[in-house]
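Hey team,

Filing this mostly as a record. A colleague (T.K.) asked me to run one chain through the structure pipeline before their review meeting, and I want the input and output archived in the tracker in case anyone asks later how it was produced. No errors, nothing strange. Just documentation.

Input sequence:
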Amino acid sequence: MKQFPSLTRSAKSVRVAFLTKWDPLDPHSWSGTMRSMYLALGRRGLSVTALGPVHSGARLALRCGDAVVRALLGKSYDYRHNLWVAREYAFRFGRKLARGAFDAIFAPAASTEVSLLETHLPIVYLSDILFPDYRDYYPQCSNLLHFSAAEVERVEETAMRKASAFICPSDWVAGRAARTYGLPPERIHVLPFGANLQWTPSYEEATRKKDMGVCRLLLLGRNWQRKGGPIAFEALKLLLEAGIDADLTVCGCVPPAGVSHPKLTVIPFLSKRDPAQVDRLANLLRTSTFLVLPTQAEAFGIVFCEASAFGLPSIARNTGGVGGVVKDGVNGYKIAQEAGADAYARAIMDLWRDRDRYHSLCVSSRRLYDSSLNWDAWGRGAQAVLEGVADRLSTGGAMPGIRIQ
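Output structure:
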């Protein structure tokens, strides 16, 4: 088990078990979100101990089974959320908890890990999307076998029953937690995520007026189709047809064969483990004019926080939890779900032709990052939640169960 090493704490510091199957210090665990949360809690003076990584043999076997089911039946089996894996995690994490002294458990994206866990400790569960919303929303979660869907529902419901508090990054998820699982408002805490960057520019650098010689569009994402690559590419061509000198950089995925253009640059992958590649990503955020993400499905969108840190406005599809991070007229604009490339091109053209309005949007993007879209702000909120559940336990306060409707 790894303990946050850099702070000296008082004897009253809340001792937090950071419970996840991942290694929270790996910059690729949940695209760096685990690491950001782990470090943010440590900076708040909490005594944070990582219980992961924990590798599951059952999960590996079921992943192979999912591939077979897809090939033979055209259906899918969710190997990430099932009772077999949950039992294995309950045993292994139970042993790790028994070897330490803790006041609370923080379980980010860990419904399977905690659903069958037996513990007297209060659990603060975090998720950016709940099963009723991600079923048939993300392609990898669609077309589930009936019994697999029922199993996932049970895992999610059981995790929510165990949670003394629930943290989520958007009102979209908070509404689902209240409607489906009956959580009272005092148990739900909406804390937007931050930017998973090792460093961010100063306010002065981020709000400096940009070079407007070329309208530089940036699309960041691992899946060309799901992240709206075809729409971004068509928007580029519409801007060029309108006489705007524009280009598009796609980073993180590769367009299919036949998608090419002299104004299209493709960077298949940048690793956050490589300082040179991290610098290259930062330079893309620094020199681009717009982040364009017509994403088909998005639970939240850390990338919008990262863009805001660089004073880079976002033009994004209004879907899922995007409304929790992209605020119209503040750090970008949301485009209607049914809109096509012309709507994105119009939004970009309007801002491109009004330079004062565009610069004001860059400034307010950075201000929103400074006020709420950063991990220190998230850490303050999460600290209050964890200290609250630990205090109720230490004083013998009731930890009411969750009513499932």
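Quick notes for T.K.: Confidence is low (pLDDT under 50) at residues 4-11, 398-405. The chain has two domains: 2-194+374-394, 203-371.
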